[in-house]
Amino acid sequence: MQKGTINVQTENIFPIIKKFLYSDHEIFLRELVSNAVDATQKLKTLASMGKVKGEVGDLTIQVEIDKENKLLKIIDRGIGMTAEEVDKYINQIAFSSAEEFVKKYKGKSDADKNALIGHFGLGFYSAFMVAKEVEIITKTYKKGGPTKAVHWECDGSPNYTLDEHDREDRGTEIILHIADDSTEFLEEYRILNLLKKYSKFLPVPIQFGMEKTSEKTGKKDKDGNDEYKELEKPRIINNVTPAWTQKPADLKEEDYKSFYRELYPMNFEEPLFHIHLNVDYPFNLTGILYFPKVKKNIEVQRDKIQLYSNQVFVTDSVEGIVPDFLTLLHGVIDSPDIPLNVSRSYLQSDSSVKKISNHIMKKVSDKLEEKFKANREDFEKIWDDIKVFIQYGMISEEKFYERAEKLTLFKNTQGKYFTFEEYKKHIKKTQTDKDKKLIYLYTTDKQEQHAFIEAASAKGYDVLEMNGVLDNHFINTLEQKFENSSFARVDADIIDKIIKKEDEQPSKLTEKDQEKLKPVFEKFAAKENYSIIFESLSEKDQPVIITQPEFMRRMKDMSKLGGGMDYMGTLPDSYNLVINSNHKIIGNILSEKDTAKQEELAKQVTDLAKLSQNLLKGEHLTEFIKRSIDIITQEN
Asked: What pLDDT was estimated at residue 300?
């Protein structure tokens, strides 16, 4: 038996390891199973080169729980180790790395601490986060010489023992004596969930216990139905050849959909389409990204891309690895070139990550362009489902804006779709104002703003439907990009004032008439922060119209989405009460001698205007209904 003491200044590496990875202590299983996979893959490679004698046999990795003795075992039939290799790779490297780690660890932030695990070869020693003692029983694949199995044992102190063992089979068995404060890792459901989380797509079969299944007996029961018998079979928890590791030419559409269901078993909506990534130069990148139907709440979409490194799950938080807007996609990215366990700031400055990020963005935009050009009609059918994603990309990434500009669509209130250039031509004659500025009219709610849409349509104007969660931000981006153009919601002002036409109607009310009438309306408007404006409109227009200034409304809407103007959300809504000085009813209100009757009429037309903007509610709506009935009764 060999005994030794490692030259480590600290008394015990166990509490150090536990401390530095405590917040994520479950990853010990990922590290140990990944090591077993690596050992198995190395054996397969050597066998393919003819350097392993005999058949390699079954290479399934076993994960076992012995709850009674508080043991967790990870067993592989990979290349194994000799005593010299255990001394070199376990004792010398890991312990000396632990000492170096302790020096680096002091005074570091949490992000920096997490960055250190991959730099010090401490993957195996993550076992001490949950174990009070760890054993290794291992036998090398090599034949001849001192190749007897060896048994290594350590309780996390600098002291270890290394002795011979009678293990016959090649490979390695890691035995964890689970600590009293980590007994959760002796529960079957806990280990099963961790294996499914971290090892679901590892390239070597991993068995954890048994599962029940049933198969036909070949017999029929008395009712003529097939008889089944229950069986137990090894529970293999992973798919060793997931879709992203296969060639696109070997996969059918149903294969991609089936893999999506495997990734997201609780998501019952089919993806719209997918992109298969497969790059081996100048970096390694594989994966499949899916376009889901984007929900109104874009935060719900995040954390759906899973990052793997050689089929080992790393994280489902990929900010810093892909552009922010791409986090709305679903799917898998696998790249050994993405540094693991490092801070976000490091990732964002890493040249390989930047290249990968740019490549993914290019592939996404290429796929969108391909679908747009291949079948415009089909592209329009999915537009409402992918609009938010594309807008998000155009707002946040200049390069994506340049790529997506020609395929981005506007939809008007008639349900017709236009590219930017097509729509510009469509409205150029009718919606260019006297200053040669192109005016884009839009609605955020076809129902609530119906009267304004109708008024605009009656005058030959076209109205865009902009009711998406990001449309306010997107409009601001477009105003910066489009030359000599502006956007105005259809109820932001009187429609002809928005377009700024020169042929204004002559007013039937003099300035004195307006001054006389203004106090009558102020009695209702002052309480609700309405500004009274007289406009000489057509006699066919409404007697009173309520508009909401574009700038204030847009800023308030943006503040709700975190547009950097949170203070705007605390300001009261402001409206304009526009009185049509050419409408017959306004003339009647002016000439009415009975003050009570005059106020009643003014209140009625004001409430009608409020009703058209969905601003009349509760008690005020009840009063309006009663008053309307009284007016109808009086007239009859």
From this structure: 54
Task: Compute CA distances 308 → 4, 210, 255, 334, 600, whole Å.
Answer: 38, 27, 20, 4, 71
Q: Is 511-545+574-635 in CATH node 2.60.120.330?
A: no
C-alpha 47/C-alpha 56 separation (Å) is: 8
The structure tokens 């018998």 sit at 229
The token pair that represents 332 in the structure block: 């898998």
What strand order describes the sheet that includes 530-535?
530-535, 575-580, 544-547
Q: What is the CATH number of domain 408-499?
A: 3.40.50.11260
Determine contact, residues 274/299, Cβ cutoff 8 Å: no
Mapping DSSP onto H, E and C, the string for 173-215 reads EEEEEECHHHHHHHCHHHHHHHHHHHCCCCCCCEEEEEEEEEE
What does pLDDT average to over the chain?
85
Nearest to 43 by CA among 9, 10, 81, 74: 81
Strand residues in 262-394 grouped as ranges (E): 273-279, 285-291, 305-309, 312-315, 330-334
Q: What is the pLDDT of residues 172-213, one digit of tens each?
A: 999 999 999 999 999 999 999 999 999 999 999 999 999 888
pLDDT band for position 434 (cuts 50, 70, 90): confident
pLDDT above 60 (res 568): no
> Quick check: 232 pLDDT over 90?
no
pLDDT at 344: 57
**Residue with the two structure tokens 């920096």:** 112
> What class does CATH assign to 243-380?
alpha beta
Distance CA 444, CA 466 (A): 5
- Say how many C-beta atoms besides its own lie within 10 A of residue 289's C-beta: 24
pLDDT digits (tens, 9 = 90+) for 52-75: 888 899 999 999 999 999 999 999
For residue 282, whether the previous peptide bond is cis, meaning omega lies within 30 degrees of 0, is yes
CB atoms closer than 10 angstroms to residue 553: 20
Q: How far apart are CA 207 and CA 160, in angstroms?
A: 30
SS3 track for 463-490: EEECCCCCHHHHHHHHHHHCCCEEEEEC
| Cα–Cα distance, 15 to 22 (Å, whole number) | 10
CA 120 to CA 139: how far, in whole Å? 25
Question: How do the residues of the chain divide into helix, strand and coil, expressed in percent and rounded to 5?
Answer: 45, 20, 35
Instruction: Determine the Cα–Cα distance for residues 127 and 31; give it in Å rounded to an integer.
Output: 8
Tokens 């993957």 correspond to 123
Structure-token match 């992203």, residue found: 244
- Each domain of the chain, given as residue ranges in start order, spans 2-208, 243-380, 408-499, 511-545+574-635
Taking the C-alpha atoms of residue 620 and residue 611, their distance in angstroms, rounded to an integer, is: 10
CATH of the domain spanning 2-208, picked from 3.30.565.10, 3.40.190.10, 3.30.930.10, 3.40.1190.20: 3.30.565.10
Amino acid at 596: A
> How far apart (Å, rounded) are the C-alpha atoms in residues 348 and 113?
18
